[in-house]
Amino acid sequence: MSRKSPVARAWTAEAVRRIDADFNRSADTHLIPVELSGYPGIELYLKDESSHPTGSLKHRLARSLFLYALCNGWIGAQTPIVEASSGSTAVSEAYFARMLGLRFIAVVPTITAAEKIAAIEFQGGECHFVDDPKAVHAEAERLAQEVSGHYMDQFTYAERATDWRGNNNIAESMFRQLAQEPHPIPRWIVCGAGTGGTSATLGRYVRYYRYATQICVSDPEGSVFHRHYADRGVTAVERCDSCIEGIGRQHVEPSFIPEVVDRMIAVSDACSIAATRVISERLGRRCGGSTGTNIWACARLISQMAARGEAGSVVSILCDQGERYASTYFNDAWIAQKKLDLAPGVAALREFFAGERLP
Ligand SMILES: Cc1ncc(COP(=O)(O)O)c(C=O)c1O
């Protein structure tokens, strides 16, 4: 049946109505002030994307990707949805696929945390494993062919499917929630990059609304993004052996737009996980690893602002819930097996929050 038939159009209209109704039922995510002592005139905030129904910043992206594919006529009533994902996107896409009565298959690396696989299956999704993380794209494409499905391809479409001018994107929500704060126009917004979609949306938004805010992307040391940012000739690394899920890539993704990024900060996995543990203890609940990478970059920026006597606000993202990493980042045996020494990072960050700038 053609997707242009009245029956198919009616199905698409109902699908869009259901997604909009879900959006209408959902509250926006919170902007949490993070207490800072010893940094007069500087404030730090975290945009808590873990409070979305599917527990991460990828809930917004999944909604945009489904609306983009539906309105392009790429999905019909019988179309299986396939995605290549480290987990967060798959959890969110499985949620929307079930809402539309569609089969969902996530192509995930075999190393993906057990908690994330359980979260995908809890949302009604199936997991299809590949040993080589680099092979997820090609395998998702092949599988979509095999099942006559649609490969959602977050890495290609993240920057296209998201409305960067508004429509409650993450940037618009942040600026609205900062309106009554001492520094409503942030000096820095800090985020990570997996697809690059979040940094693209933030970078375009501040340029479109002509804010002076600058965008800083935090990146695992093993990732290609900060190398590509420094030298556009570098488009891949031998292997990205970072264990921070969701961010950092072995090759540059099409949705990463370095032209709208003002600075990048590379962070070691030990510092990311140390920061994950320290910010989790300060908030009284666990956060994911990419939140730790963000916090370490924020601490570096705030330390430099303080050294220059600069005032202003710094905003970053609490990307996902830490419960998903109980068997990894919050498991000392796993940390030891990874030969990661968290102590120096934990000490430095505790001192930072007590007013001792990061070295
Ligand atoms: C937990 C987590 N944090 C951050 C990101 C990065 O977001 P983006 O893909 O928009 O660059 C991802 C992406 O997958 C993620 O899963």
Q: Indicate the percent of residues in helices.
A: 40-55%
Radius of gyration: 20 Å
- Element string (H = helix, E = strand): HEEHEHEHEHEHHEHEHEHHEHH
- What is the overall number of helices? 13
Q: Fill in the CATH topology of the largest domain.
A: Rossmann fold
Number of beta-strand segments: 10
Count structural domains.
2
Note the main sheet: 6 strands, mixed
* CATH A-level architecture of the largest domain: 3-Layer(aba) Sandwich
State the secondary-structure class.
alpha/beta
Question: Averaged pLDDT, please?
Answer: 96
Briefly, what CATH class of the largest domain?
Alpha Beta
Please state the overall shape, judged from the principal axes of the Cα atoms: globular
Distance between the termini: 64 Å
Sheet-strand content, in percent, reads 5-15%
Strand order of the largest sheet: 1-2-10-7-8-9
Q: Indicate the low-confidence ranges by residue numbers.
A: none
Task: Give a short synopsis of this structure.
The protein has 359 residues and is of the alpha/beta class. Helices cover 42% and strands 14% of the residues. The chain is built from 13 helices and ten strands.
What can you see in these coordinates?
The protein has 13 helices and ten strands. The chain is an alpha/beta fold. It folds into two domains: 23-55 and 163-353, Rossmann fold; 58-158, Rossmann fold (3-Layer(aba) Sandwich). The model has no long low-confidence stretch (mean pLDDT 96). Pyridoxal-5'-phosphate (PLP) binds at residues 56-58, 86, 88-89, 158, 192-198, 246-247, 288, 290, 319-320.
